[in-house]
Design brief:
The protein has a single domain, classed as Ferritin. Helices cover 82% and strands 0% of the residues. It contains seven helices and no strands. 34% of the residues are buried.
Length: 182
């Protein structure tokens, strides 16, 4: 069997990213719907728009290289998203659900940050400067999203803790639980 070159391996990385971004495009509307905090919903909505841009950047890279993003499924992202979906099926108070959604979204971001970082570095090594720049732009946006999620979590986590220890507004936070236990 012929060994793959770094360039061929890099193309596979890009296809993985293309698949990952398209999986995120499908998952985000569900997360937007589930989010209780306006701030969190807004962060997800903005990231959905950004993600469309990330797919377009990958398209540009493929156009230049004469290929396309199809033909590979990112199994890593599939697993991360699958776990995120489990969160949506649990009975959680509003703030705890938001805290769990943030955790799930940050796993997605960290997976992307790792993969974009590698793909950018390989682009540089291969002399694909324009591709490296496009990948770097997306990498920065993923990092910004991750930081924004951390900031939102800092507000929401104490609220979730308060609600579950009985000091919060129980009527509001119990809504989800009671509605599923008729
Ligand atoms: Fe992305």
């Amino acid at each position: 069997m012929k060994e793959k070159t770094l360039r061929e391996f890099w193309t596979d990385e890009l296809k993985d990213l293309y698949s990952a971004e398209n999986q995120i495009l499908k998952a985000l509307p569900k997360m937007i719907k589930a989010a209780n905090s306006d701030e969190l919903r807004q962060a997800f909505e903005e990231h959905l728009k950004q993600t469309q841009g990330h797919v377009q950047r990958l398209d540009r890279i493929f156009q230049r290289a004469g290929g396309n993003g199809r033909g590979k499924k990112c199994k890593g992202m599939e697993g991360v998203i699958e776990e995120g979906k489990e969160v949506l099926e649990e009975e959680l108070t509003d703030d705890t659900l938001d805290a769990a959604l943030i955790g799930a979204a940050q796993k997605v971001e960290h997976y992307e940050i790792a993969t974009y970082g590698t793909a950018r570095t390989h682009a540089e090594i291969l002399g694909e400067q324009q591709a490296a720049e496009l990948l770097e732009e997306t990498l920065q946006e993923e990092k910004e999203t991750d930081e924004r999620l951390t900031q939102i979590a800092e507000e929401i986590n104490p609220q979730a803790e308060e609600a579950s220890s009985g000091n919060g507004e129980m009527t509001k936070t119990r809504r989800r639980v009671t509605s599923t236990r008729r």
